[in-house]
Design goal:
Elements (H helix, E strand, L loop, with lengths): L1 H9 L5 E10 L5 E12 L3 E3 L1 H11 L2 H21 L6 E5 L2 H4 L4 H12 L6 E6 H6 L1 H14 L2 E7 L6 H6 L4 E4 L11 H16 L3 E4 L5 H9 L4 E2 L10 H11 L1
Parallel strand pairs: 2-4, 4-5, 5-6, 6-7, 7-8, 8-9
Antiparallel strand pairs: 1-2, 1-9, 2-3
Bound molecules: guanosine-5'-monophosphate (2 copies), manganese (II) ion (MN) and sodium ion.
One guanosine-5'-monophosphate binds next to β6.
Protein name: Diguanylate cyclase (GGDEF) domain-containing protein
Length: 254
């Protein structure tokens, strides 16, 4: 309760920040963008991880305001970077299932693009399988409207939910993000590597691009490139970092 009360003040007190984790194209090895990840530096509680406060924000309804702030902030930052010559192709933003099901989510996304001036094609929204499969008709409609706006959609933590392949195919999607739990045993573990190959094949089959999360070793990166994965993300390629550190990281690799 204490934490929930503090969270209410976090926005006004300017205690929230976005960190940015590199997204890397496997073929070229180049950083092509970033996933925005929310951080809370609480005056009262110190650093609180999103694992703790996102569920709290979802229960209390604060996720709507937080999520809108994240969208605006990420679009502003990406747009500013692009004006400064940090030309990322992709800024990825996580949408909570509750946000995704908001009636006016399309308008909220459109506003964030309009106000920031970020091209829609640069914005990628990450939605979990669970959120997509919960209210299928509404999800389908929202995805279509977002597609019309020109933003891209990725399925986050793919493989941990229970997607119906029939619906996955019907939805307007662009990318599968393979959950990091499947990367842990790569490349040695035969069952993990079979599974990752299966997801890569599934993505190909549905004409989706595919990204592996949680890449921590060079062997994993090599294996993923050899097996036709498009992109990767993980501590090997870069930890989530503050905005200034991300733009330094970008400049250093150019
Ligand atoms: O960055 P980290 O690994 O600590 O994130 C933990 C979890 O919090 C992840 O599941 C991530 O998707 C989620 N998360 C981080 N930032 C956001 C955000 O801005 N919105 C939502 N809905 N979830 C987020
Ligand atoms: O659920 P989602 O994929 O949005 O969350 C991404 C989370 O994964 C973030 O909390 C981020 O800090 C974490 N993460 C990113 N790269 C790695 C990695 O290489 N290993 C591990 N264990 N976690 C990672
Ligand atoms: Mn994510
Ligand atoms: Na994920």
């Amino acid at each position: 309760f204490e934490l929930e009360r503090s969270l209410r003040g976090a926005l006004q007190n300017d205690e929230l920040r976005l960190h940015y984790q590199p997204l890397v194209d496997l073929a070229s090895g180049r950083c092509i963008g970033a996933e925005a990840l929310l951080r809370w530096q609480s005056a009262e509680h110190g650093t609180v991880g999103p694992d703790r406060f996102i569920p709290l924000a979802e229960e209390s309804g604060q996720i709507v305001a937080l999520g809108t702030w994240v969208l605006h902030q990420a679009c502003q930052q990406a747009s500013q970077w692009r004006r400064e010559g940090v030309l990322l192709d992709t800024i990825a933003v996580n949408l909570s299932p509750i946000q995704f099901m908001q009636r006016n989510i399309v308008q909220i996304v459109r506003d964030a693009l309009d106000i920031s001036g970020l091209p829609a094609a640069c914005l990628e929204l990450e939605i979990t399988e669970g959120a997509l499969m919960q209210h299928i008709a509404q999800a389908e409609e929202t995805l279509k409207a977002l597609r019309t706006l020109g933003v891209r959609i990725s399925v986050d933590d793919f493989g941990t939910g229970y997607s119906s392949l029939a619906y996955l195919r019907r939805f307007a999607l662009d990318k599968l993000k393979i959950d990091k739990s499947f990367l842990a045993g790569l490349p040695e573990d035969p069952s993990d590597s079979q599974l990752v190959q299966t997801i890569i094949a599934l993505a190909r089959n549905m004409q989706l691009s595919v990204l592996a999360e949680g890449v921590e070793t060079g062997d994993q990166e090599v294996w993923l490139r050899q097996h036709g994965c498009d992109q990767c993300q993980g501590y090997l390629l870069g930890r989530p970092m503050a905005a200034a550190a991300f733009s330094d990281h970008w400049q250093a690799q150019q």
